[in-house]
Specification:
Elements: H1 2-41, H2 47-50, H3 58-86, H4 95-164
């Protein structure tokens, strides 16, 4: 009977620890989902739209924002130069119009490059979300098993108490 009480205490403690672990894992999953939402919802990542992310993801998002801006600008510049060299950018003779045409092309190239980079980052985030979800599922399975064990030991302890209660000859 004492073993049953000890098992009830041990299992209760383990369940509490697993519930805490599940809560933390769910929070991590939510954080990744929030970052994916920010990534998909804005054209350009900046401090304003990544400031609400968790301390785990803020450095990643900040670095990605800087990297994606620089990489997309470089890609756009290379594409614009390639278009100029191949003669696909019309020469207007008017500097203002020429600059507007080139800036428009640059902006389109940059937006496409940003979109591609964000898709790559989203793919990485989706894989991480899947890993976290698998981890969460494992924790929930262990919790279910521990709860079943706890109920068995509670029943065993209850039965043990009934057996040791004196009946005083009744």
């Amino acid at each position: 009977m004492l073993i049953a009480f000890w098992q009830v205490q041990r299992l209760t403690r383990e369940i509490n620890e697993l519930e805490l672990q599940a809560m933390r894992t769910q929070t991590r999953l939510s954080n990744y989902q929030k970052y994916a939402g920010v990534l998909g919802g804005s054209n350009i990542l900046n401090i304003g739209n990544i400031a609400g992310l968790s301390s785990e993801l803020l450095p990643r998002a900040s670095l990605f924002a800087q990297y994606s801006d620089q990489a997309s600008s470089m890609s756009a510049m290379q594409n614009l130069q390639a278009m100029k060299m191949t003669g696909r950018v019309p020469f207007t003779g008017n500097q203002l119009t020429q600059m507007q045409i080139e800036m428009s092309a640059f902006n389109q190239f940059k937006q496409q490059a940003l979109k591609n980079l964000k898709q790559q980052e989203a793919t990485v985030l989706n894989e991480k979300e899947k890993e976290i979800q698998l981890e969460l599922n494992g924790i929930e399975q262990r919790l279910k098993m521990k709860r079943q064990q706890l109920e068995s030991y509670k029943q065993l302890a209850s039965d043990g108490i009934k057996d040791t209660v004196p009946t005083f000859g009744l």
